[in-house]
Specification:
The chain has a domain at about 5-35. The chain is built from two helices and no strands. Helices cover about 40% and strands about 0% of the residues. It has helices at about 5-25, 30-35. This is Dynamin.
Length: about 70
């Protein structure tokens, strides 16, 4: 076997794997003929800004004396 026939064999093998993957992971014929209707798009709700946080006093933590 020379390098051209080896390359041809490997190319055929890769093409067969790619074709098999396309059939396995591709859409089924029923999905192609009867696609799901697109959901009616509703306008996005207007975002209400969050109220400002309530100011708080200083945080005092007890530190143990060792």
């Amino acid at each position: 076997m020379n390098s051209q026939s080896t390359a041809g064999f490997l190319g055929t093998l890769v093409a067969a794997v790619v074709l098999a993957a396309a059939f396995i992971y591709g859409p089924s014929p029923s999905q192609i003929r009867n696609p799901q209707p697109a959901a009616a798009r509703q306008p996005a709700p207007v975002a209400v800004p969050a109220p400002a946080p309530t100011p708080r006093g200083p945080v005092i933590r007890e530190v143990p004396n060792n």
